[in-house]
Design goal:
The chain is of the alpha+beta class. It has a single domain (25-156), classed as Nuclear Transport Factor 2, Chain: A (Roll), CATH 3.10.450. The chain has helices spanning 2-24, 33-42, 99-108, and strands at 25-27, 49-55, 61-69, 74-80, 85-91, 113-122, 127-135, 138-145, 150-156.
Length: 157
């Protein structure tokens, strides 16, 4: 009896975790009117590919992501479910990374390959730079503040 109960509990847990994993990210979604309208006001000439996701500690905050290409870059805009822009990130040339950040990378990550650089502007007008580096097939984002001072390094999937 104990074995049957444990087996049922195990399969229930597996089933629930699969449902949660599937519900977290939805590609090719249509955002609410307010979200689409805000995007069109800020980026009137861009055509987005929308996805929705949940963030926050309990994955209970619905967000919409708009990926799009501009004439010079690729961008990502993140909105809450009522249309407030939370963050805007766009790819930049490596030469546009602040000098302090380049020095830090040369001093600490000389043997890593820089794969991309992005500038991120949050709704609070805080600007950061993210530099993607790779070593031994592991990707990291090295994050710097507006002046190029090191903030953190984050391993990515």
């Amino acid at each position: 009896m104990k074995t049957v109960f444990l087996t049922i509990a195990f399969f229930s847990l597996v089933f629930i975790s699969k449902i949660d994993a599937q519900d977290i990210l939805t590609e090719n979604t249509t955002p609410p009117f307010e979200v689409a309208r805000t995007f069109e006001k800020i980026f009137p000439k861009e055509i987005p590919k929308w996805s929705k996701d949940y963030e926050g500690q309990d994955h209970d905050q619905l967000i919409y992501r708009a990926k799009f290409k501009t004439a010079t870059s690729e961008g990502l805009a993140v909105f809450d479910n009522v249309g407030n822009l939370k963050v805007y990130e766009f790819l930049i040339p490596i030469k546009d990374i602040p000098a302090n950040a380049i020095r830090y990378l040369n001093d600490n990550y000389l043997y890593f390959t820089i794969t991309e650089a992005a500038k991120t502007i949050e709704s609070s007008n805080v600007t950061t730079y993210e530099v993607g580096i790779v070593r031994d097939h592991v990707f990291y984002d090295v994050v710097f503040d507006h002046d190029g001072n090191f903030l953190e390094i984050v391993e990515k999937d």
